[in-house]
Amino acid sequence: MSKLEITSEDLPGLYQSANQASLNAQESYFRGLRWYLILLVCAAFVSYARPSDIVGALLSAGLFLVTLGILIFIRVQRPDDTWYNGRAVSESVKTRSWRWMMRAEPYEDCENVEIISKQFINDLKAILDQNKSLSQYLQSTSAAEDPISKTMKQVRSCSVEERLSVYVDQRVQNQIEWYWHKANFNKRRAKQWFWVSVFLHAAAIAMLLYRIKDPTLALPVEVIATAAGAALTWLQAKKHNELNSAYALTAHEIVLIKGESDAVHDEKQLSEYVLNSETAFSREHTQWVARKGD
To answer: Model's pTM, two decimal places?
Structure first.
């Protein structure tokens, strides 16, 4: 039983729908921001290349008009809100699902499992009711799936030792690997974009100094400066440094949590262990959503 693999398809359809809605909104947000920054640099380049040309002026104005449209789209559609809300819902559903499978509070043993199943489904309804704005982005296909899969029922019916083994292997270890991967990824990206920004700033400074030597030489200082600002804006939007720290800290905490599994021997201890673990898993994204709303 310890080798059982629990995938996202084994979780309630609400998790799959919310997770996909979050990923789609995240891609939409960063795609809009990416084109906004690229077109800003292009507009600055056109203005530099054709400073006194009517066609150049019209093209530059057109590019700025498009960037304005992108800004309006991001402000009105708020894909970042859908991104954050979708992740919050998906993580909440995943947490509830694992607590149900492990018979952890508030889904402890009951003579009639239908009562516990009904409570679980009602909790999913409450999560959805609290995030009604997300409903228009949810996929109908995955929502049609049974909220309690056969795999979930199979795990719940196992002994304490078997459930603990599944939880450590398929939940705790999975989270450790996910957070370490994300921490390392964001660390690399933060370093890369930092050096891009340093290079662009250094290039702009070099051009300004060279202009002192030859004032008649036209150099694209404004274009490079705009590109440097775009790189910095992208770095801040992606939050690579912040996420690297948050993910690394959470990964260390989960490694310690994994070690605590050796002290679990009965239902009560397993319930407490799962509750403590799920609290640690949700802390990072909960704080992230809270910071976003500030």
So the answer is: 0.84
